[in-house]
Amino acid sequence: MAKYIILVVGLLALMLPGCSDRTVDKTQMELQRGVLDPEQEHVFQPQLVLQTSGNKLALFQFTTYIPQVTLPYYAGGQARQVPWLILLAPEGEGHNYYLDHGLAELVDELISTGEIEPMAIVCIGNDRTFGTFFYGGRSFGDRELIVNGGGDKFLPGYSYGAGFHDQVLGDSLIPYLEFSRGEWLITGDSDKRGIGGIGTGAYGAFRAAIRNPGLFGSVSGIDGPLDFDGPNGTSGLISLMDSVFVEQPTLTSDELFISDIDSSGAYPITRLFMGGSMAFSPHDTIIDVEIRRVNDSIRIILDAATRGQADYIITDSATLVSNIITAGDEDLDFHMPFNFSQRPYAPIWDALWLPQNLENLLTGGQLSGKDVFVGSSTEAGKTYREQTLSWVSTLQAAGVNPQVYEYSGYEGRPATGTQYTYELMREMLIFHSNSFQSQGN
Fold it and tell me: How far is CA 37 from CA 34, 74, 120, 181, in A?
């Protein structure tokens, strides 16, 4: 019964006034109350071992909301398998972000009123060091993997530093969840599986759906870095580059910019670019990493000869930040996509960042036949609203017809903070439920 710990949080009482005129049968809500699976960590080897956040145990943190109907009969449920949704947290937030914003209470309410069908929700956290790695990374080719001291084999290219999120979200997480939580989740059916997120979680959701077109039947994103250079090629994240120097006015030259830049949580825009740089423009200086497990040993080897190849190292050092992480052979540096001019530095921005822009990843019909939701608020910051609306135009031009929901708040209650997250989360859940139902039972 350890899995069936009921979440008791008082956020709903604070959020519901002004959110809706609907009345909810509290008795019915009590009967429909879901539970949380308390197991919150899993070890994926070797995908997360090089994550630059002190994550040498390769822990992947998540929390799963389980609706009442999935529980055994003796626990008041119906032992049903249900559709499921993966939610990626925005930058700077952990795996409990959505739960802290009333997700469990909201889902209980929507199930009780019949607005959504019962679904499980897997909540995944963002990076713990820089706040985000955009749930992705740049592949640098193959890596030699030696298992049990012999039997060389070559694996697909890894993006390191960023934590291998492409590999985890695309190759490892789904089969693990279907195996370990198959008693709750509908398995083997992508139409009953969705992914969504807010902020860089929105970027990560669309990235995962595009790079793995057969994995999810529905995808959603709310106000994130969805078009790096904006609708005109000169805005988007480009418009934020000068904010780094506003946050840190002591960076008064190129030399100080790359030597004294601070990654602390007091500088959210700086950390956004740093995390993206670790994902899209890392400077590989890792030589040898060894991880031991029970009865076997795994070594990921990057020797001097490999490091000399152009595909594995960026020789241009104009925007190289090399003083953030220094730990012997595990030194990982990165190249920022701009310099003190506060404008894009083409060798990094054009060659490494823009290829990871969603409009460039969407090279064909990867989202054809998928249900797509895009949400935005008039109060969204970080140029996210303009990037989000630009992404909507890109999708429409590609023949994708996304459901677009714009939220401006209520009179006297603007679309900011918790209210903004809560209301758009509601619409996102309704969208995914409708998608699950439209695909049949």
Answer: 10, 17, 10, 10
Q: What is the pLDDT along the chain (441 residues), one digit of tens a residue?
A: 433 333 222 322 223 333 333 444 445 445 568 888 866 666 665 555 545 445 555 567 789 999 999 999 988 899 999 999 999 999 999 899 999 999 999 999 999 999 999 999 999 988 877 788 899 865 444 343 333 333 333 333 334 556 567 778 887 889 989 998 999 999 999 999 999 999 999 999 999 999 999 999 999 999 999 999 999 999 999 999 999 999 999 999 999 999 899 888 889 999 999 989 888 887 754 433 443 333 344 444 444 344 444 444 577 889 998 867 554 444 567 899 999 999 999 999 998 899 999 999 999 899 999 999 999 988 888 999 999 999 999 999 999 999 999 987 777 666 665 567 788 899 999 999 999 998 755
Which structural domains are found in the chain, ordered by start?
1-127+163-227+364-441 (3.40.50.1820), 235-356 (no CATH)
Token duo for residue 277: 């740089």
Nearest to 164 by CA among 121, 202, 134, 200: 134
The Cβ of residue 293 has, within 10 Å, a number of other Cβ atoms equal to 9
Q: Which residues are bridge partners to 88 per DSSP? A: 124, 197
- Angstrom distance (rounded) from CA 393 to CA 259: 39
Which tokens belong to 360? 């460039």
> Which amino acid appears at position 253 of this protein?
S
